[in-house]
Structure prediction request, 221 residues.
Amino acid sequence: MIDAHNIIKEYQTGTELLRVLDDVTITVMENEFTAILGPSGSGKSTLMNVLGCLDRPTSGTYFLDGVDVLQANEKQLAHMRNQKIGFVFQKFNLLPRLTAIQNVMLPLLYRGIDEADAFERAKEKLVLLGLENRLKHRPNELSGGQQQRVAIARAIVGDPPLLLADEPTGNLDSKSSLDAIKIFQDLHHQGNTILVITHDRDVAEKLQKVVFIRDGRLYEN
Ligand code: ADP
Ligand code: ADP
Prediction:
């Protein structure tokens, strides 16, 4: 699913060249559940942005689901993000004025799927995540754990081949964190390919495969 080799990302800061990703090679197979674990400042967000087709590396190669990402233009990159990746963020990124189900419907509406169909598909995912009694609630009427479940429903509503989660438990209490991890595990068992980026050891140790990042370099153990 993910086939990234020798990824280097450098930033020019004043006169200094800062190497944030240093020869990163990572592969994620279909139906794998992988965590990338590393401390703050180790390059996790930068790697997430590259793997999520949000940012380009300075050099390296990256194939996502067989497509050469680094040869794609901006329009094609946006298409990759929409079609191939479901994103889950630390801050949920739900639209505050929309209800839970409207938030989940949005990616489908953007794709031109009609409203009735989008409603049914969004409802199916919210029910799957135990939110059948929260469809019409707005984000500020939901707990953090519930908001993250809405965000996960939104990420999977288009059945993307890859689920990419950046610190998904960063704003959750420990019980909600465990619930969120359980949801990812269930999704994994249903055939989803998942990559979670986290600084939380308790989260990482529950997952199938853990890769470590430190100072922009990856380590298998
Ligand atoms: P993490 O997500 O693990 O906290 P980041 O990927 O956000 O790490 O950052 C890794 C390093 O790269 C940090 O030292 C950060 O300051 C630096 N960095 C990230 N983005 C930029 C940027 N756009 N310009 C300059 N330095 C950056
Ligand atoms: P996170 O909490 O996800 O690690 P950060 O606070 O490290 O996020 O970074 C937020 C955004 O700012 C990212 O897009 C990152 O690329 C950018 N950034 C981080 N460090 C720097 C920096 N030193 N200079 C410029 N941009 C930076």
Summary: The helical segments are 44-51, 74-84, 100-110, 115-128, 144-156, 174-189, 201-204. The chain has a mean pLDDT of 94. The radius of gyration is 17 Å. The pocket of adenosine-5'-diphosphate (ligand 1) is lined by residues 11, 13, 18, 20, 38, 40-46 (CB under 6 Å).
